[in-house]
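Predict structure. Chain length: 679.
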Amino acid sequence: MRREGFYSSQLILPLRETHWLRFTAEDSFDRALADLVAALNTNLDRVKTHTRLLVKAVDWEKKLRDESLLLRGRELADAETWLANSEAPGPDPTGLQREYINASRSRQDAQARAERRLRRGAFGGVLAAALGLAVATGAGWFARARTLQAQETVRQAKREVMDIEQQVKKAERQVELADQRAQSADQQVQLAEARIQSLNQQVETAEQQVKTAEQRVQDAEQRVLTAEQRVQDAEQLVALAEQRVRDAAQQVLAAQQTAAEAERLQQEAEANRRQAENELLLAQGNLLKVQNDLEREQHELQLALQGNRLERNATNLLSQLGAFTNRENAVRLLIQAIAIGQELQHLIQAESLTLENYPATSPLTTLQTPLEYLNELDRARAPQLNQANSEELFTKVDAALTSISHSADGQYLALGDSTGRIQIYARSPKRPISAFAAETGAITDLALSPNGQQLVVLGNDGTLKVWNQAGDNIGIFRDANGLIFGFALSQNGQFLATRDGTGKVKIWPWSWQTLSALRDARAFTASPIQTVDLEQDRISSMSFSPDNASLTTTDQDGTLSIQPLRDSRKQSPSFESFQAQVRQVLLSPDASRIAIVGQNGIVTIWNRSGRQLSYIRHFKDRATDASFDASGEYLAVAYEDGSARLHKMRNLNDLIDQGCTMLEPYRQEYMEVNEVCSR
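Prediction complete.
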């Protein structure tokens, strides 16, 4: 055993040639332990015999199988014993070793037969034997010399074999380490490519938002010009009023020339004066209003310009995020993202802006990307950040989850999986309530009643089945005109929206109180109270607003629209979610956030103005459905691996605080951390 920190050349020669087994932090412990066990189980005598015979066999092969190099006597017997025990622990005999030993046995047997024939001969045989003895004596001396030379060769070969074995083992360890690094690099490349694809989409979003901001700037400048024109018009009104006042004064002077008309003229002048004063006050009021409008427009213009600058900075930083492949780049980009986020934070606080009126949102997603990258690298070192962002709700199930739903009171959570099984849990304290099979195939969608006592399930047969917590099917709802491909329930449980195979949406009355009185699977239906005429292509998902005044929908192209239900003439706002196919769309209880679950397994969070606030991406599997809790501050997400996690809706302050927490170990290495995280 030796410690690290010195060179092997400092050891004495016998220790320097020792084959060391490395148990350092840079080497694989399991690999080193396996080498140690193999070394302890090795039969050294058998290894030495294997090496000695291999050297002789190789030399015999190189010299065209010279018979003088074959084994004889005791050495041949030992070799045959070693070959017969090939099942013993240690290296197996090679084909060349077997040929060498067999050739030695054949040569010695041939010599023995020749000696027997010589002993049966006559005098000539004796004479031949004598001559043979002389030849054998000479050959013996020659063999002795060759033997001494071979022994020295064997010892040299042993030392070379030991050196080669050490080099081979060292090379094997280096190859294994290189393979591990290559696998890790491949994984990082795949992750970087996925992030580059996501960032390209975000860059397109940012560019579109920049164009929108520039258009808003142009509109604001036009409004400023209009306001300035209104100021000029007001000034002309003031000048006109002043002229009328002067005219009235002249009329008063003229009235003094005639006593008979003096009073009339005075009254007329007084009336003109009062009218002029009123017009002056009105003009001054208009001027003040125009000035206020101008100040407001200039303030909005300044706010738009600041938001535009932050969007550009965040967009430029987003374009660099796909390039980071190591911790250093990620740390530096996170520092820049925090600085941009702090500028947006100060602007929001100074203007008391709401989530919907943020002048820029790209700094939020720009903060999240390097933060999650470092979070994955430091997952073992910073588990508190992972726990603060999300937590696993319940034990992972054996099938892929396809649906998830919170009750409106936040007390219950229902899960549906690909096998048609339903599981209902209580949230506080966490405990299972019931589990039962609701369908023969996958659960397409489900929704809990506001109190969590019943739930509606959509299966592959195009009907809605109503179940209670005990697993009893208490009702079946059908559309008499066709199958149901998707549905949404209002938060108060009074309305049901369904869509058919063409994307046509119908609004139905709904009553959980009536359903709670049912005791068997009774089929029921109703007449739709409204058929929504949508301008979108085929609808893929929908969700009611909290006040039931609008329906948020997504189509097959990923376009999101807010459709008014009470006033069909009102224009419906829309924006692109940049997800080609959408699994689900849902609103938070206060309608300030919109969550979109894409077919790519990524959940994106938006405000009602069409600005992306954040995203949720599981590092192992894809999301299939999501549900806001009663507070709207947490989002429960179901995944294909059978897990369900509760994710916190992080705002700008949360992201900045977590970013500074993640950068805490880098304060000494990066001075910029002290600057941005001490503000």
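Summary: DSSP finds 13 helices and 25 strands in the chain.
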